[in-house]
Each structure stands twice: as structure tokens, then as C-alpha cells.
Amino acid sequence: MERTIIGREKEKNELKRIISSNQSEFVVIYGRRRVGKTFLVKELLESKFTFRVTGKENANLTDQLLNFAYALEDFFSVDQRPKRWTEAFRMLSKNIEKLGEGPKIIFIDELPWLDTPKSCFLGALEYFWNNWAYYRNDIKLIVCGSATSWMLNKLVDARGGLHNRVTHKMLVSPFTLEETERYFQSKGFNYERPEIIDCYMAVGGVAYYLSLFSRDKSVAENINTLCFSKGGELTDEFSKLYDSLFKKAENHIAVINVLSGSRKGMTRLELISKAKLPNNGNLTTLLKELETCEFIRSYQPFGKEKKDKMFQLTDQFSLFYLHFMKSGGNYGKNYWMQKIGKPEYTAWSGYAFETVCLHHIEQIVNALGISGTYYLPCSWSYRPSEAVKNDENVDEDLKRGAQIDLLIDRNDKTVSVCEMKYSDQEYEITRAYANHVEDRLRTFRKVTNTKKSFSVVYVTPFGLHNNMYARKVNKQVTADDLFMKG
User: Considering just the CA atoms, what is the radius of gyration of the chain in Å?
Assistant: First the structure.
């Protein structure tokens, strides 16, 4: 019987459809470490497996084959020890051929770990699929792994015998705010939405991270224990996270480090300069891997061409780690609680809340009532040259720099200009800030020459304090809107 799985409706429906299809299927499930890939497959299909095996981390060929043999024994009562992968897969196929009708679900978890040096594993897998499973109509091969670079390069984008053989690829993403709330409720937590937003800003919607929280502690107390206490379970997670996902992860980490210092992101050339990486195909692959795992996003700034594409850090935990945990050392008792409200916390929380909003663009669009409109989320920035600044004939609006962190460019001749403001109470728009927004909009219009109308939107947890400036705002998006189901 299928147990309750929080969220994952799209993935569950897709897997059910795949299992019931009338052809053999090769399904690749990938995503960041500890996001819930294995849990999804196990809870949905546990009682339906024809064969299941999990690769062993840092094991040699002999141990991997022995582990595979034990799985064969568990599922088919076969007491044989294969000496090579071709033999192991042949034993599997011959035992499956003895079974009756119906789908044959084969689940290989942590598949990349089976591909040990000189093991010829990938060639054996290719032969198993291309020369046996593919020609049947009942094999459902589901493979899973956190080593994203291996999963993408060896399977999804394979150029060898498995080229175009994967029938479905499935990315398992972190929970949304709504799913995070449901997860905590299912575990008996009584967190209110502002606390859940605070939690999400620090660790995102990664299922395993959330499972480490204790319901007898506040979010701040949990973060303090997990991230800043001696032996805390997330103190060494950052390096493990990237090492488990990517081969030669030091370059991935270098990019993440550089991007953490730029709220709007960087162009490829800026990244190359600051991270000191070569401009070649390896960097293209690296950026694709980071974006595929949802650590970064790429976007085309308003009015710019594709060559001006920006890359922006959007992973909540990486951002949190690099702001507060990277230095390590002795944090002292209640370190995190003492940080709350300090300037460093204020700077981080503003950036982190913007990132939360970027993960919930669909919810913002729904709250604005424009879900039926074609739209493109993007950002915009402008930096005048020294010559422009010093030219007396240039418009004053063009002499100042300006940046807008979230624009929703719509095809109904309107641009939603989003001000994302983190606050633990109603956000009060001051006269100075209202003037600042108006100045930016004037600069934006003059620089881009856009003829579209502007709709000013404030995204802030508790909404706006009701004053004359708030009443001029076109739309407000609150925490409750961000918690809507996507």
C-alpha cells in the first residue's frame, strides 16, 4: 500500500504512468543529495519491485558484485556469485524471463557507485538494455543517483551505447513552502508560516535537512543546534553536498563562492575572471550541472541578448553556509539566536528572502492574477560609465545606476516590478524609499526605452503598513500567497 508522500504529485503520476505503459522504460531520477529521490521510489513502488539493489559508496568491484549477488539471492533465491558485470546482468535477465506477465520493475539506487574503475559496468548496463530489455515490453528500469555529473554525462547526455536510450528523466526538487508546511504538520510541528519562511531561508526545502529538526525547539534553536553546535549534523554538509554530486567539485564550489557575493548574479565572463576558471566547454558543463541541480539559475536580463545571460546563486543552504558557517571555529552558545537582528543577519535575510521568492515565481504570478498570461521573470541593472556621469548634456536619470531584482515581463504590455522585502512585521514604505523606487523606474524606462506599463508589486511576509505610499502600490503579495499550492 502506498504511504503518504508529501508533494511530488507530478512525479508520482509520471511514475505510475510509466509503470503502466506497454513498452520497456529506462527512467533516470536525479537531483541534489538528500532531496528525497530514493524515498519517492521506495514509498511508491516498494511492494512492486522485481529486483532492487543499491550501490555501495567507496566499495571496490568485488564488493559491488557481492552486493548485487545478495540482491539476486533475496529476490530470486539464486546462490551464485558473478565475477563480472556482464555475468551479473545476464543472471538478472535470465531470472526475470522465468516470471509471468506484468511489469518487471528493476530499481538500481546510487547507480554511479557501481561504476568503479576498470569495472566495465557501463558497458554491461548498455548491453543489458540495448540487447535484452529494450526488445521486451515489460521492463521498467529505474535508476537513481546523487552524483549528478555522472547521471547526466553517462546516461542522460550519453554519446556511447546509451545515446538516446533513456526514455524518461526526472528531476526531484526541494519542497516548496507549501510542501514544507505540510511536512512539518505531518510530523506534529506547530510552526507558523513566518517561522517556516525563516527555516526555508536557511536550509531550503531539502527533505533530509527538515527531518533533522526537533519539534520541541524553535526554528532558530534548531538551526543553532544543527549548524553551529559542536557535532551539529549540518556543520560539514556543504563539502559533502558538492563532492557527492560533482566530479572535481572544487570548481563548482569556486563558482558558488563567487556568486554568493553578487545578489543579481554574474555574466559568464565575470565568473571566469573572479573564479579564475578557463573559458571552455568544461565551464559550460559545470554551469549546466549546477543549474540542473537547482543551485543556480540563469536568466536573460530585461532588454538584453542571450550572450548577456546572467548566472545567480539560488540554493538556500549554500547561501546560508557561505554567509555564516564557512569560517568554522567556536561559535559559542546560542550563536544563531544572537545573530538575529544584527546587520549581518539583516543583509543576509534580505538576499535569502529574495531567493525564496525566486523559488516561488509561480505562486507570485498566481497571486497577481496573471497566470494565464505569458511571462518571463528576469532582472535588470544599469551602471553608467564615467563619461556619462560627467557629461552635462546627459539626462540626470541616466547618470545614476539602478537595479531591479525581479521583473515579471508580460505579453499584455505590462511589466510587474517586484520589490521583495523581508520583515518580521508589516513593511512600512517611507517617503525616501517611495522616491527611490520612482527614480529607478524613470531610469529603467529611459535606459530600456520600454513602452510597457509598470505595475509595482511588493512581496513581503506581513504585507504593507497602510500609509499613503502603500496605497499607491498596485499589488501586494504576502506569506500566505507564497504558501499557495503551485
Answer: 25
- Give the span between the Cα atoms of 125 and 130, in whole angstroms: 8
Note the pLDDT tens digit of each residue in 411-428.
999 999 999 999 999 999
* Residue 175, C-beta contacts closer than 8 angstroms, at least 6 positions apart: 6, 7, 183, 205, 206, 207, 210
d(CA 121, CA 255) in angstroms, rounded, equals 32
Does 393 score more than 70 pLDDT?
yes
Residue 253's alpha-carbon distances to 84, 238, 262, in angstroms, are 36, 9, 15
- CA 46 vs CA 1, 15, 16, 68, 138: distances in Å: 9, 13, 13, 18, 18
Band the pLDDT of 3: cuts 50, 70, 90: low
Give the integer Cα–Cα distance in Å for 440 and 400. Answer: 9
Task: Find the helix or strand (DSSP H, E) in which 453 lies.
Answer: strand 453-459
254, 319, 292, 353 alpha-carbon torsion, rounded to 10°: -150
* C-alpha span between 325 and 76 (Å, rounded): 48
Q: Grid coordinates standing for 255?
A: 563558482
Question: What does the alpha-carbon distance between residue 254 and residue 275 come to, in Å, rounded to a whole number?
Answer: 6
> What's the start-to-end Cα distance of the chain, in Å?
27
